[in-house]
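User: Show me a protein chain along with its predicted structure.
Assistant: Here is one chain, sequence first, then C-alpha cells.
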Amino acid sequence: MNLIVLADAITWSALLISLAAATVLSVLASLKPRRAYIWFATGTLGIALVAAATATTTAPFGLAPIVVLLGLAIAVFGGSAAAGTALELAMGGAVSPGLHGGIIVTDRRVDPSAAPGLQTTERRREVLRGGLTIGVLERIASAGAIIAGFPEALAIVVAVKGVGRFTELEAPEARERFIIGTFASLIWACAAALVVHLAIN
C-alpha cells in the first residue's frame, strides 16, 4: 500500500513540475521567440502527458485549479510559439509580415486590352489580419472544450475559423499559412488540455 502511495506522489510531483516548466518555457517562447524554448516546452509537456496518463488517482484536493490554470497557460502561450515555429520551418521567410498580424500577398491581374508590357498589374494587400488574437481565442476555446469533456466543440471552432477566413484564402500563401498555423496551434492546445483532462478526471 505504501508503495502505491509513494508511486502516486512521485507521479503527481513529476506532473506538477513538468507542467510548471512547460508553462514557463511556453511563456518565454511566446515573448522571446527562440526555437529552443518551444522544443524544451514540448519535451516537458510530453513528460506531463505521460505522468497524467499513468496517475492512478485524480488531482488531490486543491490541485485541480492549479493544473487547469497551468494547462490553459501552456495552451495559449505555447500554441502561439508552436504555430510560429511550424510556419517558420515550413515556409521560412517566403512571406512578408503585415502591420496588423497578417501577411502581405500580391494579386496579379491580367488585362488583355492593355498595351503590351502593361497587361499585368500587381496589387499588394494584407490577409489573415488579427491572426494572433484569433489564435489565442481558438486555443482557449479548444482547450476549454477538451478540459470540459466536450471535444465535439473542436469542430465548431474549426468551422467558425474557416468560414471567417474563407474569402482570404484565395492566395496560395494564405491557404498554406492558414492550414499549417491552425493545425500546429490546435495540436498544441489539445495536447495541453489532454494533460489537464487526464489529471482531473
